[in-house]
Design brief:
single chain, 180 residues, alpha+beta, three-stranded mixed beta sheet, 6 helices, 29% helix, flat
Length: 180
């Protein structure tokens, strides 16, 4: 199983099995990084410009993992392990999110490593609830386990939903004055 730089497990054998489309890929199959942020890697941008900024993975012989700038980060709406949905409290900055970004791969991500023939290190993340995140890092739990949300996770989510519903309730001005 893959590990973090400190030696804890990340919950997968191959991060690319759980990676999605590249964050830099536009809807028309072009590489946004090469087109809009050419200063980050001018040589890469020049190469992509030669091919009309077409994504590296558009080539039949290539995959996303072949691109030195591949990144697949989570949208963070649901835990990929247990399915717990995020409920954010917009006006409570002290409330810790139910979901956290979990890195499946670690490394420098430098194109120099790729040019030297080393495997490029890409940013690949998924969303895990705090409870699953702990289990993955502190045990042999895997992100593709058939898991249900922890009772504590469900209680935390439902407490947030209850608060959210209470805030959406209508109270007339007369009721507010009577409450004071």
């Amino acid at each position: 199983m893959e590990q973090t730089p400190t030696g804890t497990p990340v919950g997968v054998d191959d991060p690319y099995d759980h990676a999605g489309r590249c964050d830099h890929l536009t809807s028309d199959g072009k590489c946004r990084l090469a087109r809009e942020y050419a200063d980050r890697d001018p040589a890469f941008a020049r190469e992509r410009a030669r091919f009309d900024y077409e994504c590296v993975a558009a080539d039949d012989d290539c995959e996303f993992r072949d691109c030195p700038h591949y990144a697949a980060t989570t949208n963070g709406r649901e835990c990929v392990r247990c399915g717990l949905e995020e409920v954010r409290m917009a006006h409570d900055s002290a409330a810790r999110p139910l979901l956290e970004e979990h890195h499946l791969s670690y490394g420098s991500g430098s194109s120099a490593a790729h040019d030297a023939g080393d495997d490029p290190s890409h940013e690949i993340t998924v969303a895990l609830c705090r409870w699953c995140h702990t289990k993955v890092h502190k045990s042999f739990a895997r992100i593709d386990d058939d898991a249900s949300p922890d009772p504590e996770a469900i209680a935390a989510r439902e407490a947030r939903r209850t608060k959210e519903l209470a805030e959406m309730g209508f109270q007339s001005a007369r009721e507010r004055v009577d409450d004071e």
